[in-house]
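pasting for the record
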Amino acid sequence: MKKKIVVILSLLTLPFVSCDDKDGEYADYVVARPLVINQSELATIDIIAPRPVDESGKVYTYQDYIFVNDKYQGVHVIDNTFPQRPRKIAFIKIPGNVDISVKDDFLYADSLTDLVVLDISDIENIQQVNRLENVLYNNIIWPFDADIIEDEGFDYETEVLIGWETTTERRLISEVEERGGGIFIDDMAFAETANASDTGQGGSLARFKIVEDFLYAVDSHNINVFNISDLDNPVDLEDVYAGFDIETIFNRGDHLFLGSMRGMYIYDISSPATPTYVSEFEHGTACDPVVVDGDYAYVTLRGGNGCGALESGLFIVDISDIANPELAIEYAMDEPYGLGIRDEKLFVCDGESGLKVYDKTDVMELEQLNHFKDIVTFDVIPLESHLIMVGDEILYQYEYLDDDIKLMSQIDLK
């Protein structure tokens, strides 16, 4: 059975209109189309030779390895024994994958709505050891940066939606406006805390987080809780409803900080199997991640897209009273994505505006130390030894200096 999907996500933001178009009849729109596979392919995990990235996603580090997500396709494995000379060594093909987390040589990854467990103790011979089916049932990621979603044919009997492919296309403004604002769907249905163990580190855009013997995986509505004390046999515990449009997760001590399109939610995990709501900070509607350091949470808000907000910025929230977070100050940004902190340095990936480095000693008066322009940035991981950043299908590594950072290496993922 073939069905047609047409979704207009937002007409709140004005698309780019070229002066060359007669009377401004046409405009550029970001159009998203479904990526689909046959249902029989969903459960197939393959380890293959390195390949070019289609669309780089999140980045994760573990021991001497860097894992870079290829959106909805799988994970690129990079040997980073020598950060000056990183080397691509394999690609783990995981349909529908956007996130991973690693503990003691066991890699946990989402495969659409399934949780997959891989043994990576021998990086040259990665093995799948478990698969929990349908435990991440709200894990469909909507392409919020798109203006239009459309599909010319989706066979629900044989195909599975695993993600989205986006392009910029010129469309008649009148035709788009005739469809109206909002969402139109035609019969669419969708089936930073250190541990004693060896746990890897993700960036601020992560949706997976391991804290001791528990894996927390957020989907659009819930905190999915897994007991991983038996590493190759995770136990799916009761989900905790956390709200709408949850996007990211960050941990500090006994608290989880969830970034959503509506705000920042704080949960207590002193009883790790049952996260409990503590408080929230509302900021309107925008795409955002959050990181925490000391008495402050740092939240980037990206507007001008399907997330709903018109403006972008960096919000610094006072969480000295964890039950009553309050805005301390906000700074204007262009299109921020991920961010990270190392000591007194704050790193902000400001999309096409590059990487911005600040001294945050005084949060009320951030001092910009450097601005790496002419690069597209997505997310960062500030390691103890150096900084890792991914953006525009390139992996960058920077050396820390006393009051700055310096490019150490870069590798093209294409």
